[in-house]
């Protein structure tokens, strides 16, 4: 196979976004994918509002709008079953789009640029010579294949063996989430807002039950909990979901008569980007770089932002003909610039608000007092809460808004 400027491993949201922007910049790119699109991906299916500009920049916003269920607010409940809904400002909404559809639209947008693409190709390792990546090895049609490239972009999701090979893999049980999701019909009490339930101390810190509505009585329902917390419960994530249904009024109402329409599936997600994400001739994007946010476990905007920055550094490295570790360090700086303050505020919120139920109760009581009848985003509400009640002095922007 001919040598490329860039080879991208994985055609998910991170890889396809990188491919799209690289092709638009005129780079010679080959993207390889072990699966075949459309393919499913275990997810809550929530696409927060700050992803909209990224979708617009790829020309896919209107198409996703056709399939995405619009959620104009966020609802929080606590262990007293007190709850509050943050109704977003007029016209603002998050999407809930099944990943089978969402990822396929992003993938097709990348392919429309004319980028070279091979499916059913499983990358098995980064080819290295004297510590510098030369491309990748993989399996295609049952045969071992080598693809040479100046820059390798790892976008093959969490637990990437190639990220491990490059030393980009770090695990801390307090920052590894266990996520479980299923699709349910006949849910009672559902509205069109996204629901986060914090029903018991055992989910803390940062763990919750979610419902992402995808219809009037239908939702993607799931559990998020850190590995450290899950171990302490002595339960599985699935048992936690049924614990909520069987032991709480809200759980009974939502799930008591719910009917499963898509199997419960789980995944393990290292979060928080604490480790290196570049090496000689290699960078990593999205879940392959543990870019999941450490509070809610969202990762789609992060993977897309990383894809945009991967294209930027690839163009610069090609122009400078420099693919060394020290040149690619700039990629990490771009990511820190775009996502760093978001990670910091989420770290802070993990302890200041979502570390225990007492704080979540206080947030809900404060919200009832201050925000009833108002329209504001969850992020703005949180900002006002920590500034007034915690004396927070920093900037409270979300992970991806600048
Ligand atoms: C239960 C759960 C709920 C979640 N809920 C949300 C949510 O509501 N909102 C949100 O924003 N985020 C959510 N996330 C996180 C989100 O799913 C990820 O952050 C996002 O998918 C990352 O995209 P990616 O492109 O980096 O990786 P992926 O989407 O994992 O894509 C990686 C691609 O690489 C391919 N691949 C893997 N290995 C190889 C290989 N060796 N060779 C070639 N190809 C390979 C895979 O087939 C795949 O297509 C959730 C995650 C989980 C597990």
Which characteristics define this entry?
402 residues; alpha/beta; eight-stranded mixed beta sheet; binds flavin-adenine dinucleotide
Average pLDDT, all residues: 95
Fraction of helical residues: 25-40%
Number of strands: 18
What Rg is obtained from the alpha carbons, in whole angstroms? 21 Å
Report the uncertain regions.
Answer: 398-402
The secondary-structure element order is EHEEHHEEEEHEEEEHEEEEHHHEEEHHHH
Q: Which strand-content bin applies to the residues?
A: 25-35%
Q: Report the major sheet.
A: 8 strands, mixed
Provide the structure class.
Answer: alpha/beta
Tally the helices: 12
Shape: globular
The termini sit apart by 41 Å
- Give the names of the bound compounds: flavin-adenine dinucleotide
